[in-house]
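HNH endonuclease signature motif containing protein, Plantactinospora solaniradicis. Tokens?
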Amino acid sequence: MVATGTETQSLKQRFRNKVRVDLVTGCWMWTASVDNHGYGQINVAGAPVKAHRVSWMLFVGPIPDGLTLDHLCRVVRCVSPDHLDPVTRSENTSRQIAAIGHPNALKTECTNGHGFSETNTRYASRGRGRVCRICRAEANKRYRQGRRAA
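Tokens:
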């Protein structure tokens, strides 16, 4: 998201108009459009962007490269920059597990024994968990060989 000073002011005003502060929790609750997972979204330059990411960029600054924003309050509609923490995807996943508990997330290796390290782990789309890169590469190789044989 790159915006000039005037565009940023306009975006800040649009953003503020879509937030309601919960006086009990301190969460800035997103009152406008949400995606299929319940995260707030706002159009920036004609494309939908997650509202909590826009909040961080407007009120804190750029999200550090390679990091994602973790909702410390565990409320996905919350866009308060005070409730967000830039962390690695791995740390974000670990925190989610600690908060909600999920047996697969506690596993340290795939079903074939390959370790879930930062370099060997890919995160599947739409929150569907982790994928072992070694196993995925082997499956792709078998698929290509089968296609050639056919």
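The two ends are 46 Å apart (CA to CA).
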